[in-house]
Amino acid sequence: MIKFNFDFKLLFKQIFVGLGLLLILILELNSIEIQPAFAAVDLSRQPATEVTVSLSNESGELKFFPDHFQFEAGKPYKLILKNPSPGKHYFTAKDFADMSWTQKVESGKLEVKGAIHDLELKPGGEATWVFVPIRTGTYSLRCSIPGHTEAGMKGEIIITENS
Ligand SMILES: [Cu+2]
C-alpha cells in the first residue's frame, strides 16, 4: 500500500517534469522569427544622386530650371528644390510621385515621410526630396498655381530602366 503510494508520487513528478519541458519547447518555438528572404539591398543606405531644380528665378519667370529630368529606376535621388522668385510655386508631379518610393521630404527642421503629390515652395523656400523611382515612363511636371502651367511652368520627368 505504501509502495503503491510512492510509485504514484514518482509518476506524478515525472508527468510534471515532462509537461514543464513541453512548455519550454513551445515557448522556444514561438520565439523563432521568420526572416524575409528579400531586403538584400537597402536602398535607403545607398548614396543618393543630387539634382537641383529651381522653381522660377529671381526675375519671376514662369519656368522650371531645368524643366527636363531623367532618373533611373531603382536608384536613389536627392532632389533639391529652390524657389528664388518673389512668388509662391508648386512642384506638382503626381503620377511621377505615385511611381516612386519617397524616403523623405525635408524642409528646414521639418521632415515628412509618406506619399508626396506636390510640394509648395514659398518665396526663398527650399526643400529636399529623397526618393527612388520605380516604374519607367514619361511623367509631367507642372506648377499648379492657376495660370502658371499655361505660362510655361511645366516640364517632363522620364524614368528609364536601370542600367
Ligand atoms: Cu508657379
Task: Detail the topology: elements first, then pairings.
Elements: H1 2-30, E1 49-55, E2 64-65, E3 68-72, E4 77-82, E5 89-92, H2 94-98, E6 100-107, E7 110-112, E8 118-121, E9 126-133, E10 137-142, E11 154-160
Parallel strand pairs: 1-4, 3-11
Antiparallel strand pairs: 1-2, 4-9, 5-8, 6-7, 6-9, 10-11
Bound molecules: copper (II) ion.
Quick recap:
By secondary structure, the chain is an alpha+beta fold.
Comma- or semicolon-separated keywords:
163 residues, alpha+beta, 11 strands, 21% helix, elongated, binds copper (II) ion, Blue (type 1) copper domain-containing protein, copper ion binding
Describe the structure.
By secondary structure, this protein is α+β, with helices and mostly antiparallel strands. The protein has a domain at 49-160. The protein is 21% helix and 37% strand. It is built from 2 helices and 11 strands, in the order αβββββαββββββ. The protein has helices at 2-30, 94-98; strands at 49-55, 64-65, 68-72, 77-82, 89-92, 100-107, 110-112, 118-121, 126-133, 137-142, 154-160. A 6-stranded mixed sheet has the order 2-1-4-9-6-7. Strands 3-11-10 form a 3-stranded mixed sheet. The radius of gyration is 30 Å and the shape is elongated. The model has no long low-confidence stretch (mean pLDDT 85). Copper (II) ion is lined by residues 62, 89, 143, 145, 148, 153. Residues 52-159 form the Blue (type 1) copper domain. It holds the Pfam family Copper-bind.
